Amino acid sequence: MKIGTIDLGEQPVVLAPMEDVTDMGFRLMCKKLGASMVYSEFVAADALIRSVNKSMQKLTISPDERPVAIQIYGRDVESMRQAAQIVEQAKPDVLDLNFGCPVKRVAGKGAGAGMLQNVPLMLDITRAVVDAVKIPVTVKTRLGWDADSKIIVDLAEQLQDCGIQALTIHGRTRAQMYTGEADWTLIGAVKNNPRMHIPIIGNGDITTPQRAKECFDRYGVDAVMVGRASFGRPWIFKEIRHYLDTGELLDSNALSIEWKMDILRQQVLQSVERIDEYRGILHIRRHLAATPLFKGIPNFRETRIRMLRAETVSELFEIMRQIEQMLTEIQNN
């Protein structure tokens, strides 16, 4: 699969853009573990134009994470056009337009998934951004605003006509937020529309290697995108890549408890190094809280609370050492 001249190989598996999650450290980790392409956290167009420091920092790219996309969102043509030109100077491989974020502070103001209620403006923004930059422009969006307005099949053609070079579709409406199951049938309908010729990336509920393969086989998508399933489990890319390439699941020796715990510790250290000890640990807590590695540990509640309250690396690592011991004992019994 190619986005412009960027070759992502066969059946790419990409990391979704996620606010306060896909910082450079996490992107590098996922890339190292098999992600074909990674996306930045989304960046507000208005904040880039005003040179807000926190937003400008999100444009920093490491050579080791390429190919990488930077994603922006906004609600008017001119700010998105200007922001796109600012992003281009950071030299990402791809510029992605967020027309899918469902959270109220974004969609409620007409940006993100809010654009699904104003398709003419969405198309005006897309055309303006495509014309403003030389790098490939892509779009990420949803099926529609709600169950009564699943417009994605027609919208995909319209976005393609604007000049985008790939389209990512999350298989939910804005009204669904992240609830219920992702509907891949409409993603498949877009991919199988004979008038579509750009790559289609499917997103939503890719939580296992088997599901990733099923989505490639059943719906014919060009790539799959993994989002929330990567929380506390960046090795999901290694699992999926191995399964797609060999047809076999990785055995427990390849992904041992010790190895997985070491990955989580690396994430902690990356976060602390990037920010500082206290805030770095705060930032990484959502990954530790969400990791499936700790599920099924009996009487884990008290240990989990201590882990999520730890304020120093030494304190956190001691608790993680105890957890690793628990997991090893469970495995050996």
CATH top level class name of the largest domain: Alpha Beta
CATH superfamily of the largest domain: Aldolase class I
Biggest sheet descriptor:
8 strands, parallel, barrel
Shape descriptor: globular
The CATH topology name of the largest domain reads TIM Barrel
Q: Enumerate how many helices there are, as a single number.
A: 14
CA(first)-CA(last) distance: 45 Å
Low-pLDDT runs: none
Q: Share of helix among residues?
A: 40-55%
Biggest sheet strand line-up: 3-4-5-6-7-8-9-10
Strand content: 5-15%
Chain oligomer state: single chain
**How many domains is the backbone divided into?**
2
How many strands appear in the DSSP assignment? 10
Task: Give a short overview.
The protein has 333 residues and is an alpha/beta fold. It has helices spanning 24-32, 45-49, 53-57, 77-89, 104-107, 119-132, 152-161, 184-191, 209-219, 236-246, 257-274, 277-290, 301-309, 313-332, and strands at 2-3, 6-7, 13-15, 37-44, 68-73, 94-99, 137-142, 167-170, 200-203, 223-226. It has 2 domains: 2-246, TIM Barrel (Alpha-Beta Barrel), CATH 3.20.20; 257-332.
